[in-house]
Design brief:
This protein is an alpha+beta fold. It has 15 helices and 17 strands. A three-stranded antiparallel β-sheet has the order 4-3-5. It has a three-stranded antiparallel β-sheet with strand order 8-14-15. The protein has a three-stranded antiparallel β-sheet with strand order 12-11-13, with no helix packed on it.
């Protein structure tokens, strides 16, 4: 509940250092809300942050990391981190730090409200619906709303969380101009992009407790080519933001984790928040920020390199909602992607936070069997980034030996095992295509459906296989076991597709192939399918001398002209 602040003429106050507002899940499974101070004091007894949305969790974790980095003044190197890891009260310094910076953590302060701009207003004095900052209420789409038809009020705790989320993930689009913003034209500011975290394919590392999670993501300043300036500071240690925005380069992780992409001001009374003024803040291009931002993978952009006539140009590698995280394991555990020549920059870069964990296991600070989850969280925007269409929340559980920089055997087998799955799924997709051709029906729908079924069938077994991979002294036999499992599962799914193909596919028809024509029916399609499985999965299937071992054609049959 808000309090009357005696130091501010009795005005309302909601002190985020002492008032509960951060949702957490305790190790015993109980949900709770804690203040900033309590989160750090009890981090060892908490499982994780549990936001209203996964993107809110990501934004709050970054906020906590900014506090930790600043309060602990580091860590500067791996030795400093190791001391924190061994010290049960490693976050003790946060308590006094919050005391020193307390005035900047008051959500309702009249002069320096937390993550807001005091006195922010439009020329007409308008106050807008809270829908503008609550991301589970898409603008103009109340049918999909979790809070039909509008958000009339928020508690102060809820509002604080959505303020943090707005800076991280607010949509783009035309926004109302505020007084003092030189970018306003005709009372409007035209699109300047989404909140900073909205550009990212967000990645962070989860341990068994929130304490472990915070420490594992506390990247030391001397990690790889990470750049953290000596004057790096979070938003609350910088001058208060006025209307409009300032173009500048980020100074490091503390700055980026609290980047003020928006200008906003909450409107409230004694019982809660009932409105908001929201405008654009500090713009920031995502181009070539890989030395500053550790919580995303990066990809080279040929289009940008051609446009800017410079190379390399890296952009954040965003998550694809349709693609499960396990299928992209290479982007998480492949530390140095192979370039086409020794002088060329790699096509992809691993998230620096995973490079940091790789360093911890390589230098012996973490046991090889220490278990982590790589959490992947991101937003997919639609209609010129003016709405959030989908939110990605996925994870890959693994032992840190997969990140070991000098022992790549486990990572190589984990990546190759995904290749095994891809090969088997492609074989099944070809089977579905051939069955459709044999029946004389369209092929794209059956092929896509078969591939989706196959990936869905393999997901749980792969995750289980990966979770136990580090238990083996030699990962190669485990790979062979996985290939056998893939063969068994996909072969059975192929049998089912053939049984469901119907009389038309069983009877077959003449189709064109690369070397002429072939009478294709379900029996021949099945033989090609099993041959492809055996060829791709080595000895996982039965012997290549099997009667069913009929070579597949040079290409998938095409319908006759």
């Amino acid at each position: 509940m808000p309090e009357n602040d005696p130091h501010n003429g009795g005005a309302l106050s909601f002190d985020l250092t002492d008032q509960p507002w951060i949702p957490v899940l305790r190790s015993n499974g109980r949900a709770d809300e804690l203040s900033l101070r309590e989160v750090f004091e009890q981090a060892g007894d908490l499982r994780r942050i549990a936001g209203d949305l996964p993107t809110q969790e990501f934004a709050l974790v970054r906020l906590l990391l900014a506090v930790a980095h600043d309060a602990l003044e580091g860590p500067q190197d791996i030795d400093g981190w190791a001391q924190l890891w061994e010290e049960p009260q490693c976050f003790a310094a946060v308590d006094s730090y919050l005391d020193v910076n307390r005035e900047r953590f008051d959500l309702l302060d009249g002069q320096v409200p937390f993550f807001q701009t005091a006195g922010l207003q439009t020329a007409k004095g308008e106050v807008f619906s809270l829908n503008r900052i609550v991301a589970d209420v898409p603008n103009n789409e109340p049918f999909f709303s979790a809070r039909l038809p509008t958000v009339d009020r928020l508690t102060f705790a809820e509002a604080a969380r959505w303020v943090v989320h707005a800076h991280a993930y607010d949509t783009s689009g035309i926004k109302t101009g505020v007084e003092g913003d030189a970018r306003a034209k005709g009372g409007k500011v035209y699109p300047l992009g989404v909140g900073w975290a909205g550009n990212l394919g967000g990645v962070f590392v989860e341990g068994a407790t929130l304490r472990e999670t915070l420490l594992l993501n506390l990247v030391a300043a001397d990690t790889g080519d990470t750049q953290i300036d000596g004057d790096d500071a979070p938003a609350w240690r910088r001058p208060p933001c006025g209307p409009g925005g300032a173009e500048r380069a980020p100074t490091g992780v503390r700055d980026l984790y609290t980047w003020q992409t928006r200008r906003l001001r909450l409107h409230f009374d004694a019982t809660g928040v009932h409105g908001v003024v929201l405008g654009y803040g500090d713009p920031l291009s995502a181009r070539n920020r890989q030395h500053r931002e550790p919580m995303t993978a990066w990809r080279r952009s040929q289009a940008q390199e051609k446009k800017l006539r410079t190379s390399p140009v890296y952009l954040p590698r965003e998550h694809v909602p349709e693609r499960s995280a396990w299928r992209g394991i290479a982007s998480l555990v492949a530390s140095q992607p192979v370039a086409s020549s020794s002088a060329e920059a790699p096509a992809f870069r691993q998230p620096a936070v995973l490079e940091w964990v790789a360093r911890l296991v390589t230098e012996g600070e973490l046991e090889r069997g220490f278990f982590i989850r790589a959490r992947l969280i991101g937003a997919k925007y639609g209609t010129q980034q003016s709405v959030i269409d989908e939110i990605v929340d996925d994870q890959v559980s693994m032992a840190v030996v997969l990140l070991h920089q000098h022992d790549r055997r486990y990572a190589e087998q984990a990546i190759a095992a995904v290749g095994d799955a891809d090969l088997a799924v492609n074989a099944l997709g070809d089977l579905a295509t051939n069955l459709a051709r044999a029946a004389g029906t369209e092929t794209e729908g059956p092929r896509a459906t078969a591939r989706d079924l196959a990936y869905g069938l393999l997901e749980s077994p792969y995750r289980s296989w990966l979770a136990h991979l580090a238990e083996a002294d030699d990962p190669y036999p485990r790979r062979t076991q996985w290939q056998r499992q893939v063969y068994t599962l996909i072969d059975a799914l192929g049998e089912r597709l053939m049984a469901q193909a119907g009389d038309g596919a069983w009877q077959g028809r003449v189709v064109a192939v690369k070397k002429g024509a072939e009478w294709l029916n379900s029996a021949l399609a099945g033989k090609w399918f099993r041959s492809a499985l055996r060829k791709g999965l080595g000895q996982a299937g039965s012997s290549d001398n099997s009667p069913d071992s009929v070579p597949a054609p040079d290409s998938t049959p095409k319908a006759p002209a």
